[in-house]
Amino acid sequence: MMVNNTTELFASLTPEEIALSNELQQIIIQEIETSGGMIKFSRYMELALYYPRLGYYSNPLFKFGAKGDFITAPLISNVFGYLLSRQISELFAFGTAANILEFGAGNGKLAVDILSSLGDSIDHYYIIELSANLIAWQKETIANKVPHLVDKVRWLSDIPDGFNGVILANEVLDAQPCELISYRDGLAYGLGVAYTNSKLVYQDYPLNNQDIVNTNSVPQLDYHDYVTEVHIANQLFMRTLANKLATGAILLIDYGVSENEYYHPHKARGTLRGFFRQHVIDDVLIYPGLMDITCSVNWSMIARTAIDNDLDFIGYTNQGGFLINCGLDDVMRELQVQLPEGQYLQISNQVNKLISHNEMGELFKVCGFSKNLPQDSWCGFTNFDRSYAL
Q1: How far apart are alpha carbons 262 and 295 in whole angstroms?
Q2: Taking the complete model, does pTM exceed 0.85, yes or no?
């Protein structure tokens, strides 16, 4: 649900939440002042999401599930992790080492489901997580759910050089800081964040090589009154993965579209939005630290960057198609025989959210890449190919 008037929604904030947000806002304002009156939007997003102790992903406020701000696929059903494990198991058989590296493991639910499914066939399960609070949560979840597999799990601060295994990133790309670009009469301007009249506001700035690391990332659009995002952090992330991976596979899962759709004339306000208590917020400059800030993935740019950095493109499909390709129908038939009717119907409803075109099935996409693997056909991309759209 999109919310334009947030007064009522934020009226129930606790004193703790207000104090946290105010403290973070003062830090942002101070950086704006020391930076000459403005910071790039990517820096604002980085501070709002990842500033130690106060940023959205760094603070201890509850975030996940129906009582939080958003729901991820692993939280809906463990069928998601089980089917993803089928794809990972196949990749192990293709010759990659039995190592998994997950970026941004949230509350640890997906790691638990994969560990439960693959068990001793995994040598190591690595997690890269920026938030100390989330690391503690992940450790608790894993210790409670799969205590016999705890010794396989390691937390890292960075992907090791020469990694051999499967790299997994579920809803990671959308949370990486982006730049905002504004178009007027075919000219592009950067949109930064300033502090004016006691509030955080957007402010134009001219684009040049110092403002944008790679100006080729800025699309040439002959639009007027048009705002969109440029994903330089996504590009750097893909280059890093390509450079660090020696042998293995990369599986990326996130909401997004192809470049033609991303920069369509009708998307005049871009895809940037906030999530707070199951509501979509259009003004992401209010209450920093209390809402998730996200934007859709430009999958064409992801594929192009990967290929340019010597990764092999394997496939691109929607989440519903990927899960069906991984054997969803067989799993549901088995569950129908094994479970009481009520329990089976509950799981069916959960799975419907994962695969329905009206839910996550079409909104979310899955993209696969490999390096130095002999096999270029994965079960998850057997049918429902969408690569023609990239």
Answers
A1: 11
A2: yes
Q: List the domain boundaries for the chain.
A: 2-68+176-234+261-294
What separation in angstroms does the CA of 315 have from each of 138, 171, 256? 30, 18, 15
- Give the separation between CA 38 and CA 26, rounded to whole angstroms: 14
* Structure-token pair, residue 116: 């439960």
Fold classification of 2-68+176-234+261-294 is Rossmann fold (3.40.50)
Render each residue's pLDDT in the chain as its tens digit; 390 residues.
Answer: 444 456 667 778 889 999 999 999 999 999 999 999 999 999 999 999 999 999 999 998 866 655 555 567 888 899 999 999 999 999 999 999 999 999 999 899 999 999 999 999 999 999 999 888 899 999 999 999 999 999 999 999 999 999 999 999 999 999 999 999 999 887 889 999 999 999 999 999 988 755 564 546 788 888 999 999 999 999 999 999 999 999 999 999 999 999 999 999 999 999 999 988 778 888 999 999 999 999 999 999 999 999 999 999 999 999 999 999 999 999 999 999 999 999 999 999 999 999 999 899 999 999 999 999 988 899 999 999 999 999
**Which residues lie below 8 Å from residue 268, measured CB to CB, with a gap of 6+?**
223, 225, 226, 227
